[in-house]
Amino acid sequence: NAGVTQTPKFRVLKTGQSMTLLCAQDMNHEYMYWYRQDPGMGLRLIHYSVGEGTTAKGEVPDGYNVSRLKKQNFLLGLESAAPSQTSVYFCASRRQGTGQPQHFGDGTRLSIL
Amino acid sequence: GIQVEQSPPDLILQEGANSTLRCNFSDSVNNLQWFHQNPWGQLINLFYIPSGTKQNGRLSATTVATERYSLLYISSSQTTDSGVYFCAVENTDKLIFGTGTRLQVFP
Fold first, then answer.
1. Mean pLDDT across the stretch B40-62?
2. Which of A32, A41, B10, B29 has its Cβ near the most Cβ atoms within 10 Å?
């Protein structure tokens, strides 16, 4: 009963490096989301997807790219990491349809030096 | 876009006390969820409550959609209730989070 799994859980990068965060869900959900959480704040939406092969921008998309090649996976990429991207990243998924609850992973703590 | 305000921002309680957390939102919503973020950073889904009242043990929540607010009640608080409580509302497929209420429960 895995739910939403994020990989890796922790990572330290140097400025300018690239990396990809993986989100996998086993609930056959259509919708998937990537959020970031900065200290003392709520979560803010980076990008989301309403189905395989589709993505859309959220509130804070700059500096990130995403891909949804398979229904169960949603990838978040940082092409050239910056210290301002130091944050905790959360992935979520939900069923299609009005008012379905979102289910969250445990987060990825990313530090960029 | 829709605005979500939570109050109070901080709350300090002694074990056994009751508390009420409030979430106000600025527009009609399809979904409202309450989360508890524990000291390890995990987001625990407490309630999915776009309207009405739900109870789960010592916790209960009420959403009055027509008046655009929701309340989370914590009764007989325990130290394990400490953490940050977030309200999040959804319309147009996206969840908008409030800035949270930080709760500290002391023995």
1. 94
2. A32
Backbone angles phi, psi at A76, to 5 degrees: -115, 125
Whether residues B86 and A31 touch (CB distance < 8 A) is answered with no
State how far the Cα of A88 lies from the Cα of B76, in Å rounded to an integer. 31
Best to test chain A binding among B43, B45, B84 (most A CBs inside 10 Å): B43
Q: Are B97 and A33 a contacting pair at CB < 8 A?
A: no
- Cβ atoms within 10 Å, residue B59: 17
**Exposed / middle / buried, residue B54 (Cβ in 10 Å: 0-12, 13-18, 19+):** middle
Of A43, A77, A67, the residue nearest B99 (C-alpha): A43
Strands (E), chain B: 4-7, 10-14, 19-25, 31-37, 43-48, 52-56, 59-64, 69-74, 83-91, 94-97, 101-106
Q: How many Cα atoms are found within 13 Å in the side-chain-facing hemisphere of A26?
A: 5
Residues of A with Cβ-Cβ distance to B30 under 8 angstroms? 98-99
Summarize pLDDT for A54-64 with one digit per residue, the tens.
999 999 999 99
Lowest mean pLDDT among A28-32, B48-52, B91-95: B91-95
Q: How far apart are CA A13 and CA B56, in angstroms?
A: 41
